[in-house]
Amino acid sequence: MEEYLKIEREKEWRADLRKTIKNKERIELQRVKMPSLDPMERIKYQDREVNLGLDIQSAKAEAVRCMDCVNPTCIEGCPVSINIPKFIKNIERGEVLEAAKALKETSALPAVCGRVCPQEKQCEANCFYTLKLKKEPVAIGFLERFAADFEQNSDTISVPETAPGNNIKVAAIGSGPASLSFAGDMVKLGYDVTVFEALHEIGGVLKYGIPEFRLPNKVVDIELESLRKMGVKFERNFIVGRTASFNDLKEEGFQAFFVASGAGLPRFMNLPGENYNGILSSNEYLTRVNLMHAAQDNYDTPVLKGKNVAVIGGGNTAMDSVRTAKRLGAERAMIVYRRSREEMPARVEEVHHAEEEGIEFLNLNNPVEYFADENGRVNRMRVQKMELGEPDASGRRRPVVIEGSEYDIPVDVVVVAIGVSPNPLVPSELPDLKVSRWGTIDVDPETMQSSMPELFAGGDIVRGGATVILAMGDGRKAAAGMHQYLLTANKTNKEKIEAKAK
Amino acid sequence: MANLKTQFFGLELKSPVIAASSSMTADLNQIKKLAKAGAGAIVLKSIFEEEIDTQLQEELTKSRDLEPDPEYLDYFDYIIKDENLKDYTNLIKQAKEAVDVPIVASVSCISASDWVLFAQKLAEAGADALELNLFLLPADVYKTSYHNEQFYFETIKKVLEVVSIPVSIKISHYFSNLGNVVKKLSETGVAGITLFNRFYSPDIDIRNETVIGADVLSHDNDYLLPLRWTGILSSKIDCPLSATTGIHAAETVIKFLLAGASAVQVASVLYNGGAEMISQFNEEIAEWMDEKAYTEINDFKGKLAISSKHVAVYERAQFMKYFSAKRY
Fold it and tell me: Which of A4, A357, B6, B51 is deepest in the core (most CB within 10 A)?
């Protein structure tokens, strides 16, 4: 890896580019601002993307800020090891399609990551500007999106090269970011890859979880097209373990499996009144709107619309839910989170956008009970106030109940977004599969291989609940791990066949 | 032949010797042995609020090669609570199926909040009674006695509102107005009060200069503290009393019955001598009763509880009277 980065960096065009502007001058430039739709306008639309993207001038100007470090610490922050300086410097010199190609060397979904990665914790947290200069980092995320979108909108979408087919069939279960990333790498190596998806649409959380105003489904579909062109096959409406068993698939010739069925099992708080009508999981709420288009009149699937909507939780899912509620017409769209604003695990940009959109943040509040009208529809939520106590073992201050502080809030819809649990389907089908107490599949962290040698796993089903980019990183590792496994497995198979022939 | 039946936990018990909450009462095999040995009731090992927290801290800090997103762990305490609740309700069900001795679920809490719901679920799982282990070590230098006392009364009120099985409480002795507090607690509708909870004590290792835990099991004289207060309070309050700590001999059980307790709870003696200690106690109590020609416990219960005759002995330290004459 180091060698490769060095070789790329020492190419003539890069060296020349570095000489055009002194680092001293690069440092003086201000970080670009991402233009976005007016908040009060954008809350009228479920499907209008909030961030508008950079134009070429702003992108080039931002690319200039990158100093093409000898030791690019930014790459260390990237779970899929994108060659960040390479793509950014290509933007600087105007070769945006080359920048997109550079992204696709390691990332199957650059238009997605540019939009949804928590860059402030990853690449941008490790930028020289952040680490050493205490200044705003290069806007790596904005630039990634820019390059990916540029390519998507051009006539020449690059399709990475693939090795000649080796006729070895492998299956991916689930079609979310982990599987897509896995499929991309495996098909490049020449494998015959089929991705099985239970739902009727490919993409997993990218389609049913993340709202259109953050990640348009159209953008996802274009990325998927690239994978199709590379030769990845997709089977929809197919539940591995029900539609067909693993043994059925083995009989059809599949030699190895990558399980990436995600963590879509909803979690509730088990509070009194939690099963009144009008209280639902964020999974259900977002799936209805994002996947089933419930916000649109010409689609059949309904969704509960409320005047006073409370979303319990503080992560990205909670932000997505509350901003969706606003767009569905809520007068009060509230976040109820038991810790402070600063401790919310959501992406900084999401919280910022939510504030602009008029979302009310009821921090240091936690529900304890729900009440309903005579029809069983929730109409009141009792919350307790919290204060921050001693830090817990992870360093975050614990929320401590303030006794006697209960008060009621009128609500007609409550969305519970406190986190999810791993999909229990595959583990329930395979009793020999080693699984943790909490339902995650145990794997070797280097190869992603499970206790069953032909089965690999990654993404949320292994981590519990993670991000798109972490899932993609797992997909890449699993592809490498499975490739190694199949090389030896095939040698054994090959020897067996030869022994039979004698 | 003496009849050992008594009432406590709002239940009829066939012996005043109750197996207290301990590791033994988390083990189904031990539970069967305790029932066979004639325990009047079995208090299942208490669920501690702090335990949920300990498990949570473990999850938060365990080293993971494959990190989840912080969102996944943010409300993980709810999952841990659910798991613990599931395990406990299973234990209740299994214990009820295995023995025909009353099974008492026990919950130890330091805050009044969501333990109420827990309590409700344990009742629904089939426990015959509920013991609330309410013991606050009043170490917080900012919390007043009012504040501390409110914790007890509020928790009891909330639990009684939602639970339909009898609720008893086990308390510590840390009250400046212990008599007054126990009297008021007895008026809340609880089925019984157990004196006293025993805190694990810290000790110091001077070699390593660290704070360590002191002996976990009780000592022989530890019963004197609850004995005094059983004697003082049993005739003055509105609900039955049981006593615990340091009850290592049948003789001590009888002392408490004479002082006015309806039952006692034992643990350390069972660790040392096994579940069979209960049948030994039952035999010795029956023998003593036969000698004294008592046919049932009510015949002598509270005979030596406070009355104007015993006030001085129970209430004053009597140091002056017994030791002022000593010369060294």
Answer: B6
